Amino acid sequence: MSVRSSPTSPRCDATRRLAVIGLVAALAAASCKESPPKQEPPPPPATAGEGGQPSGEAAPIAGAPSRMGGQGEGGQGEGAATKGPAGSGAPDAVAPPPKPVSPAVTSTHLRRILDVYEPVRVALAADDHYKAREVAINLGVTLAEAQGPAVQAAIEAARAITQHKTIDNSRAAFATLTAELWPMVAASPEIAGAVRGYRCSGAGAARWLQLAGSPIDSPYLGPTAAECGEEIPLN
Questions:
Q1: Which has the closest alpha carbon to 132: 123, 145, 122, 142?
Q2: How many CB atoms lie within 10 A of CB 172?
Q3: Average pLDDT taken over every residue of the chain
Q4: Domain residue extents for the chain
Q5: C-alpha neighbours within 13 Å on the C-beta side of residue 217
Q6: Helix (H), strand (E) counts: the chain
Q7: pLDDT tens, 145-184?
Q8: Is the dihedral angle over the CA atoms 173, 234, 193, 125 positive or is it negative?
Q9: Which segment of 66-75, 131-140, 195-204 scores lowest on mean pLDDT?
Q10: 81-82 and 93-94: which strand pairing?
Q11: Is the dihedral of CA 10, 12, 13, 14 positive or negative?
Q12: Among 80-94, 190-204, 216-230, which is the least confidently predicted range?
């Protein structure tokens, strides 16, 4: 025997459909709601490194100036910057290194200079220009060994004697050379006692130095006027 299912009423079917539609709408509304923002955990506090300096920052180098213009350990060294006047706004200046002190011409070296000076004088007195230029080279080398500004002009005068093409110009350079050596000789008692000073009125009062005890022998007018000159004090 077969059993027949009783048909459902239209009202029941409509109720079921409305219930399904309501459930779907509720699920869709729940899925559209925004979830609350995710909060990040706070960063860990900075830990101190060596010397109390934060580990994230490099420690200052010992002895190096700080960013505020301060000075590290060790103080100012050679060539350190010096501050300008307060409130002037002038930039810091670097102190220049000290200039080397040139040694003075000693009496021993001055004697060596005069030993080479004398052959130049003798050659000029004999009108031997070639010989005077030749020995003046040795005079310039001896002067240069003093290594000081006091003999610089004398070195230039000795060089001029070697370069001039006429004996008159070389004699003028010799007069300049004598003028540079004269105060050095006068300031050295050891040398001044063995040297005499002369002046030739016939050559524009040009002076020269000559060993004591030797006859007057002017380097300015040649052999015919070798005795033209008079002795004058060195001081």
A1: 123
A2: 19
A3: 73
A4: 107-232
A5: 16
A6: 6, 5
A7: 987 788 999 999 999 999 999 999 999 999 999 999 999 9
A8: positive
A9: 66-75
A10: antiparallel
A11: positive
A12: 80-94
